[in-house]
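// run 5 | inverse folding | seed 20
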């Protein structure tokens, strides 16, 4: 094994020292029920913050910033970025850039987090701890980098959860901080990560996409609609990911409500021929070097 290969392999190892805050937050969340027994009030607070985080990730970081699946004004765009940033999943540009790569190379060698190529734990959390994907993908997010407030949040986003946690502690003390921040954020992490890991392994495949994406009803409920991941890989640019009445998609419901009051508009939905999965719409296999074909959803997404 030559030196370059060793250095390259190093990039995939967990950065344990740098990951101490990430691990410490887990320990605090796990200890919380023993430190402060839950009350209905505290559980309600947890649920509210979890919902805000999930909406920030699903409607904001994913459907809006990564896929431009609907339109909104600059002020509400900032609100979406702030909610997503509250979830402490690195920055908005980092998130969207890597996610666009996930669609571009889905389950191929250059997919940042394929369970098919690299195993379940790599796709769930290993890729986040490794140095390989620390770097942002500026070439993928030029459309977002036009906004200085997004660039600022991408770089200094830690102030959002710190300010929120401080406010919780000042108003409700330690119980509010633990149940209103640590618990819901860790839950939102692993539910989000499950889309990268579980939703490419467990579930059904309605559409013959070039990857292993699955539709998974349990994940769809937990993630407010992201579990219809096979639909999403088939045609990525839609504001709804549940395409049939029985496919629960809470995020889309909330976006519909927001469109009624004019905060968002132009919610994209799949054309009938896409939902029907007609031959010819099915994307061809993506080549490993990324040079050959692009998936049909990606064409609409970027
Ligand atoms: Zn995926
Ligand atoms: Zn996506």
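// decoded
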């Amino acid at each position: 094994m030559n030196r370059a290969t060793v250095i390259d392999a190093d990039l995939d190892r967990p950065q344990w020292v740098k990951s101490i805050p990430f691990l410490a937050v887990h320990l605090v969340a796990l200890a919380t029920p023993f430190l402060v027994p839950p009350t209905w009030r505290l559980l309600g607070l947890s649920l509210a913050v979890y919902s805000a985080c999930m909406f920030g990730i699903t409607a904001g970081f994913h459907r809006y910033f990564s896929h431009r699946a609907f339109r909104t004004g600059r002020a509400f765009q900032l609100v979406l970025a702030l909610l997503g940033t509250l979830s402490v999943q690195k920055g908005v540009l980092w998130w969207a850039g890597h996610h666009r790569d996930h669609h571009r190379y889905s389950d191929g060698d250059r997919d940042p987090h394929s369970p098919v190529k690299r195993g379940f734990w790599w796709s769930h959390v290993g890729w986040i701890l490794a140095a390989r994907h620390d770097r942002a993908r500026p070439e993928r997010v030029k459309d977002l980098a036009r906004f200085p407030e997004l660039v600022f949040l991408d770089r200094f986003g830690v102030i959002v959860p710190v300010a929120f946690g401080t406010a919780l502690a000042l108003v409700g003390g330690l119980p509010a901080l633990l149940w209103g921040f640590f618990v819901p954020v860790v839950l939102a992490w692993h539910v989000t990560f499950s889309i990268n890991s579980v939703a490419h392994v467990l579930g059904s495949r309605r559409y013959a996409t070039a990857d292993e994406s699955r539709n998974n009803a349990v994940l769809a409920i937990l993630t407010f609609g992201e579990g219809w991941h096979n639909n999403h890989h088939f045609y990525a640019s839609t504001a709804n990911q549940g395409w049939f009445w029985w496919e629960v998609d809470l995020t889309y419901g909330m976006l519909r409500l927001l469109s009624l009051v004019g905060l968002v508009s132009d919610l994209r939905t799949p054309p009938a021929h896409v939902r029907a999965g007609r031959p010819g719409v099915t994307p061809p296999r993506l080549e490993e070097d990324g040079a050959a074909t692009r998936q049909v959803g990606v064409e609409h997404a970027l």
